[in-house]
Amino acid sequence: MKLQRKNGLRAAALGALVVSGALVLTACGSDDNTSPSEGGTKTAAAPSNVDCGDAKGQLLASGSSAQKNAMDLWVKSYMQACPEVQVNYKASSSGEGIVAFNQGTVGFAGSDSALKPEEVEESKKTCAGGQGINLPMVGGPIALGYNLPGVDGLVLDAPTVAKIFNDKIKKWNDPAIAKLNPEAKLPSTAIQSFHRSEDSGTTQNLGKYLGKAAEKDWTYEAEKKWPAPGGQAASGSAGVAAQVKQVEGAIGYFELSYASSQDIPTVKIDTGASAPVEATSENASKAIAAAKVKGTGKDLALSLDYATKAEGAYPIVLVTYEVVCDKGNKAETLGAVKSFLGFTSSEEGQKVLSEAGYAPIPAEINAKVRETVKGLS
C-alpha cells in the first residue's frame, strides 16, 4: 500500500530546509564537488506530498556535478519525507556516472548530455529487456564572467565571444567589442580568457552554443575537452571563477551560481533580439522552453535552440538528465528510483529549484518525464 506523506501530518518533522543562497548549477563534467555559494541563506519549502510507496533501503546514484546543488536540495527534502530511504548521490562526472550506471552499480546516473548510441547499446547489458533512457530534470544558464573595472553591463554577441575564446580578439578595446558597447570606456587591457582544464559538460554546452550561433568563427566539434588554441586552463568551474575574480582583464565561463556568489559581473548576450539578454534563471527558462524532444520511445533527450532570438531568452544554457533503465531496473532499488525521481519531477520538486534560482524543465516536457517515471519497471 502506498504511503502518502502529508504536510499537515509531518510539518514539525519536515520543518524548513535551509540551503546556501545563489544556488544554480555547480560545475559540470569532472568538476569539484563543493558548493560555490558564499554567505546568505535561502529557505526552501519541504515537500507537502511525497509518495514514498514501498521505497526503502539505500539508493546509490552518481554522475554530473552540475546537479550537485539540485540533488542536495532534493535529497534532504525527500529523505525527511521518506526516512526509510537513504539517497546517496556522488557528484563526480557525467562520464563516470554513465560508466557506473552501465556497470549496474547505481540506481540512476546524472549526466549533462544525453547518452551516446554506443552508451545506450552498452546499457542493454544492465537493463534486462530494456535500455538506458534520458530524463531531463533541471536546467540553468552558463554565465560569461569578466573582470574589467569601470565597465558595467558588458555586451557581447556569439561571433565576438568565439573570437575571444579562440584567441582572435586580444584587447578589450577591440573594434568588435567597442561596436557592441558604444557608451563604455573600454581599456586597452589584454584579454585573459580562461577555460576548463578537464573534460566538462559546461565546455561542451558552450561549444554547442558557439557552433550554432557563430558557426563561421567557431568551427570546432562540441566536445567536453576544450578545443581552441590560446587561453589559460583552470580546474573546475570554481577554478575558472577564481581566476576571473583575481585577474584583471579576465573572462571565463561557469554556472551562474559562481558569478552570483562571488559578485562577478556577467556578460549580456546580443542575440539579435530587441535588447541584449542577461544571464538569469528566468531568461534561461525562456530558452529551455523552446526545447524539443529528440529522443524516441521513452527517451526524452532534448534539442535546444542555441541560436534563439526570442525576446528575453538567454541562449547559453545547460540541461542535465537522470539516466535510468526503462525496463530491467533492479528490484531492490526500483521502488526508491520511482519514488525519488517522482518527487524531483513533480511540480513541487521543480518549484523547489525555481525558488532556489534554477531553471525548471518546461511543464509540457516535465509532464512526460513524470509519466515515464511512473512506467519504469
Structure notes:
This protein is α/β, with parallel strands linked by helices and about 375 residues long. It folds into 2 domains: about 190 residues, D-Maltodextrin-Binding Protein, domain 2, CATH 3.40.190.10; about 140 residues, D-Maltodextrin-Binding Protein, domain 2. The protein has 13 helices and 16 strands. It has an 8-stranded mixed sheet, with helices on both faces. Strands 1-4 form a two-stranded antiparallel sheet. A two-stranded antiparallel ribbon has the order 2-3. Helix 2 links the parallel strand 5 and strand 6. It starts with a strand and ends with a helix.
What proportion of the residues is helical, as a percent range? 25-40%
Tell me the number of strands.
16
Low-confidence stretches: 1-44
Strand order, largest beta sheet: 6-5-7-16-8-12-10-11
Number of domains in the coordinates? Answer: 2
Compute the gyration radius: what is it?
A: 21 Å
| CATH homologous superfamily designation of the largest domain | Periplasmic binding protein-like II
Average of the residue pLDDT scores: 87
The CATH architecture term of the largest domain is 3-Layer(aba) Sandwich
Give the H and E element order. Answer: EHEEEEHEHEHEEHHEHEHEHEHEEEHHH
Give the distance, in angstroms, between the N- and C-terminal Cα atoms.
Answer: 18 Å
Organism: Streptomyces solincola
Signal peptide: 1-27
Protein name: Phosphate-binding protein
Keywords: Phosphate transport, Signal, Transport
